[in-house]
């Protein structure tokens, strides 16, 4: 089967920089698999996410999401890929959500924007992800951990092949963090959406598995 993500020889140097932010990164995430990128500040984690999301064009190398080569894809193919196959959850969950809408409203909006009709109904998806009891609450009334889980549910509600997540647990206490990790495990295990997460938390990395250590733009063996 086609991998959810495959990148080879990925390199990036920001204009005017004296060294590469990414230098020969090879990475494969199978369908329904997980990879966790860890590494010190400046290692290139955010740059990697931006390149994989198709937001930054890499200086060299190749990225394939769901079998589509990002560099070779037409603009319309890229738009379709971003809408349908690829989801991105940025660090602050509020930035991924409409605060005055409920969880259900947010999921419905994402599906409508992606033009998705079939697949898992929002109410069912929230139930399946253990969020049924807060499905109708306005997002601004939820706790930080609940918001993050709704943001992740919303990100996968159009049935993407790959979810890219930046620091999913950085502002959460231990209990909320464990719930977010359990949710990400359900997203890979039950929905079959592959997850690539960046985290500073070693326990989150260990729980999700597939740890990739990045330093100075390179993967450490
Ligand atoms: N927009 C930019 N222009 C120029 N250089 C940049 C830019 N963004 C990042 N860099 C540089 O690229 C390298 C990698 O940065 P990046 O932000 O990807 O690291 P990171 O691993 O996400 O760090 P952190 O853990 O602090 O978020 C660093 O040397 C950084 O200074
Ligand atoms: Mg970063």
Main beta-sheet strand count, sense and barrel state = 6 strands, mixed
Q: Mean pLDDT, rounded to whole units?
A: 92
Number of strands: 10
Helix and strand composition category: alpha/beta
The first-level CATH class name: Alpha Beta
- SSE pattern: EEEHEEHEHHHEHEHEE
**Portion in strands:** 15-25%
Rg, Å, rounded: 17 Å
Q: In whole angstroms, how far apart are the ends? A: 26 Å
User: Looking at CATH, which topology would you report?
Assistant: Rossmann fold
Low-pLDDT stretches are none
Strand order of the largest sheet: 6-7-8-3-9-10
CATH superfamily: P-loop containing nucleotide triphosphate hydrolases
Cofactors, ions and other ligands in the entry: adenosine-5'-triphosphate, magnesium ion
* Number of separate domains: 1
């Amino acid at each position: 089967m086609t991998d959810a993500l495959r990148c080879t020889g990925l390199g990036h140097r920001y204009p005017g920089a004296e060294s590469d932010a990414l230098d020969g990164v090879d990475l494969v995430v199978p369908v329904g698999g997980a990879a966790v990128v860890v590494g010190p500040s400046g290692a290139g984690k955010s740059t990697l996410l931006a390149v994989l999301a198709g937001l930054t064009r890499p200086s060299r190398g190749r990225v394939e999401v769901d079998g589509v080569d990002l560099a070779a894809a037409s603009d319309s193919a890229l738009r379709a890929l971003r809408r349908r196959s690829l989801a991105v959850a940025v660090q602050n969950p509020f930035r991924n959500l409409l605060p005055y809408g409920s969880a259900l409203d947010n999921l419905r909006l994402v599906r409508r924007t992606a033009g998705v009709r079939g697949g898992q109904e929002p109410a069912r998806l929230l139930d399946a992800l253990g969020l049924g009891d807060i499905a109708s609450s306005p997002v601004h009334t939820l706790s930080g951990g609940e918001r993050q889980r709704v943001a992740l549910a919303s990100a996968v509600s159009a049935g993407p092949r790959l979810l890219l997540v930046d620091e999913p647990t950085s502002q959460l206490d231990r209990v909320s963090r464990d719930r977010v990790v359990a949710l990400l495990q359900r997203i890979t295990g039950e929905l079959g959406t592959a997850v690539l997460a960046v985290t500073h938390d070693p326990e989150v990395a260990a729980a999700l598995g597939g740890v990739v250590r990045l330093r100075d733009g390179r993967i450490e063996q």
